[in-house]
Amino acid sequence: MRKLLTSPVKMALSDAENTIYQNILEYATELSLNLMAVKVTNHPDDFLNWSAELLRITNQDLNQDLMDPPQFVPLKKMQELLIKAISLSQFKMTKIAPWVIFYDFINAQAVPQALEERLRLLDYIDTLRATPIAQMSELDRLAFVGKHTNQHDFNIYDFDCEWFASTKAAKVFHTLLEAQPQEFDAALAHIPLEGDVSHKQYQAFVDHYTSLFTAFTEKKETGEKAPLAAATRLLAMRRPDQFVALTNAKIDVICQGLSIPKFNNFSFDGYWNDLITTLRASAWWRKMQPEDEAEQKIWRNRAILMDLFLFAEDGLAEQSNYVRLRDKPISATRAKSGTTTRRTKETAEMIVDKRLASDDMPAYMQKKRNALVSEVKLGKNIDQVIALMRKIFG
């Protein structure tokens, strides 16, 4: 264990990594007797894997039954630092990673980071992207801006709307969005749907977006500032190949990992000048569009998928709002038995057959049942598939 704890001294650590390492050692000192009782066989030679191994040891190998109650505080602090170290080191990797490394890493994180579900969200947003926010249904609008509700039917919204960045705590943002959706459309109109986004176009968006909050502040005298995080959610949904969706919690680790000056949740200049310009200098971001279809999907969403370089805790995928709603127990009053039943996920066949039973369904659509089932199994929305087929065959 002593060899493991001291091995980062020989590693090439960034300033941020070294600071984290020194803090980890301070907490390890308070747990020294317990840690020394652990037999160590794996000695990684890089800080990322070192952090992952020590985190594994503290979670699985450390005999917590022998620990005194006060020791659990430094243990938790050390584990939090190790999690931060993993995220920081993984973001550090993006600065030099070529496309093949970036792509392989994204796929390696598919299960813990719920990649398939995240891509279903992005696929759904892709169908909305050209639609003005003011013309979206309420549930689609909330899906676009990052707020999941119990009204989001898991058969239709088979994803957590809050992946990448939740805005549910941004109350003024949602108040303004509900009252003036057309103004948010006007702001987003400055961001083109294709091609690289220029600083001039970004700044035009920022000016329009922040003016909404300035007007609100003058009217309500609340001192509300335009939140950067909510803006990045809008930008990343508009152009997931160009923008990273942020939350307050992400800013610190991303800035440290990329070795850029830390900015706050109101620094629109810092977001562009430091984060976006650094991202665009990366080899993986400058990669030309690949020919492989699977690679193309990642490439079209490559900026927002930087999210997968954050540490994924065990069970992160199961914490999805979509999964919780899908598997949520519901009360049943069967014959006054007082028993409960569980809501079960409908199969693709069930979803298609239910929709085909509608009175407004043309006869030729029945012949397309197998095709509809195949599309739904791929994660596509049944109503959108039917709408597309109506255009083609109707």
Structure, briefly:
This protein has 394 residues and is mainly α.
Please provide a written account of the structure:
With 394 residues, the protein is an all-alpha fold. It has 3 domains: 2-94, no CATH class; 99-317, no CATH class; 348-393. The protein has 20 helices and 2 strands. The protein has helices spanning 2-6, 15-30, 32-36, 47-61, 72-94, 99-108, 115-128, 138-145, 171-179, 181-188, 199-220, 228-238, 248-258, 268-280, 293-300, 321-326, 348-356, 363-366, 369-377, 382-393; strands at residues 329-331, 340-342. Strands 1-2 form a two-stranded antiparallel ribbon. Helix 2 (15-30) packs antiparallel against helix 5, helix 4 (47-61) packs antiparallel against helix 5 and helix 17 (348-356) packs across helix 19 (369-377). The protein is globular. The chain starts with a helix and ends with a helix.
Sequence-ordered SSE layout with sheet pairings:
Layout: H1 2-6, H2 15-30, H3 32-36, H4 47-61, H5 72-94, H6 99-108, H7 115-128, H8 138-145, H9 171-179, H10 181-188, H11 199-220, H12 228-238, H13 248-258, H14 268-280, H15 293-300, H16 321-326, E1 329-331, E2 340-342, H17 348-356, H18 363-366, H19 369-377, H20 382-393
Antiparallel strand pairs: 1-2
| Mean pLDDT rating | 90
Strand order of the largest sheet: 1-2
SS-based structural class? mainly alpha
Distance between the termini: 70 Å
Radius of gyration: 24 Å
Biggest sheet record: 2 strands, antiparallel
Q: Give the count of structural domains.
A: 3
Strand percentage lies at under 5%
Order of helices and strands: HHHHHHHHHHHHHHHHEEHHHH
Helix content: 55-70%
Uncertain runs with pLDDT below 50, 5 residues or more?
A: 331-345
What's the count of strands?
2
- What is the number of helices? 20
Shape: globular
